[in-house]
Amino acid sequence: EAQVTQNPRYLITVTGKKLTVTCSQNMNHEYMSWYRQDPGLGLRQIYYSMNVEVTDKGDVPEGYKVSRKEKRNFPLILESPSPNQTSLYFCASSSVTGEMNTEAFFGQGTRLTVV
Amino acid sequence: AQTVTQSQPEMSVQEAETVTLSCTYDTSENNYYLFWYKQPPSRQMILVIRQEAYKQQNATENRFSVNFQKAAKSFSLKISDSQLGDTAMYFCAFGPISNFGNEKLTFGTGTRLTIIP
């Protein structure tokens, strides 16, 4: 089954304690992206990756890091989480065809609370 | 930069009725995609329908259809014969034509739709 898998689905942590949210896709997609969802703001892009070892900032990258060592994995790293990073996070992947924006597949979401 | 506006934060409708969710967007691009995503209480993001800007014909998927007005930059979603399972947050999103660049989706702020039994 084609899917994007995020872990964990729920996480409560304390300010300053480094954490990683994992994302893995089994569709051999080149493009992967992280979004955060906040009430009244919709979803906003944090970082994206067009292929292995190619990453770039989205609209709200401050306080986040990513890596793309393998095509299937795209972890989101919070080196020193702060309460303003409390949010719902989504990983998404899609295939880059050069001509069309194909359907983006989303993970199940990770609800992060930083206290 | 693109912007997407959903002016209806919340809507409710009786089961079996028809409801229309509005969405407007702003872009300088000529070719692009528009999407409606559904987010039920499970939080999963589910693609409802997609419209290519270069196609004049409005997209339809069973009970879901869109009214795409390119000149007005309007992209509304109509749900016919609404069902309890349609209760969800609905997001309108703009997607660029990929040129091996950032395929970022730009989302609206969402409309929370409640179907009343």
Order of helices and strands of chain B: EEEEEEEEEEEE
Helix content of chain B: under 10%
Helix count, DSSP H or I runs of 4 or more residues of chain B: 0
Structural class of chain A: mainly beta
The major sheet of chain B is characterized as: 6 strands, mixed
Radius of gyration of chain A, Cα only, in angstroms?
13 Å
The main β sheet of chain A shows up as: 7 strands, mixed
**What would you call the shape of chain B?**
globular
> How widely separated are the two ends of chain B?
41 Å
Write the layout of secondary structure elements.
The complex is a heterodimer of chains A (115) and B (117).
Chain A: E1 4-7, E2 10-13, E3 19-25, E4 31-38, E5 42-51, E6 54-57, E7 65-66, E8 76-78, E9 87-94, E10 105-106, E11 110-114
Parallel strand pairs in A: 2-11
Antiparallel strand pairs in A: 1-3, 3-8, 4-5, 4-9, 5-6, 7-8, 9-10, 9-11
Chain B: E1 3-5, E2 10-14, E3 19-21, E4 24-26, E5 32-39, E6 46-52, E7 60-61, E8 64-69, E9 74-79, E10 88-96, E11 106-107, E12 111-116
Parallel strand pairs in B: 2-12
Antiparallel strand pairs in B: 1-4, 3-9, 5-6, 5-10, 7-8, 8-9, 10-11, 10-12
Give a quick summary of the entry.
The complex is a heterodimer of chains A (115) and B (117). Chain A is an all-beta fold and 115 residues long.
Fold and architecture overview:
- The complex is a heterodimer of chains A (115) and B (117).
- In chain A, 0% of the residues lie in helices and 50% in strands.
- Chain A has no helices and 11 strands.
- Chain A has strands spanning 4-7, 10-13, 19-25, 31-38, 42-51, 54-57, 65-66, 76-78, 87-94, 105-106, 110-114.
- In chain A, the strands form 2 sheets. In chain A, strands 2, 4, 5, 6, 9, 10 and 11 form a 7-stranded mixed β-sheet that branches. A 4-stranded antiparallel β-sheet of chain A has the order 1-3-8-7, with no helix packed on it.
- In chain A, strand 4 and strand 5 form a beta hairpin.
- Chain A is globular and about 40 Å long.
- The model of chain A has no long low-confidence stretch (mean pLDDT 93).
- Chain B is built from no helices and 12 strands.
- In chain B, the strands form 3 sheets. In chain B, strands 2, 5, 6, 10, 11 and 12 form a 6-stranded mixed β-sheet that branches.
- In chain B, strand 7 (60-61) and strand 8 (64-69) form a beta hairpin.
- By secondary structure, chain B is mainly beta.
- Chain A binds chain B through residues 31, 33, 35, 40-45, 48, 50, 56, 58-59, 88, 90, 92, 94, 96-104, 106, 108-109, 111, and chain B through 4, 32-33, 42-45, 47, 50, 52, 91, 93, 95-105, 107-110.
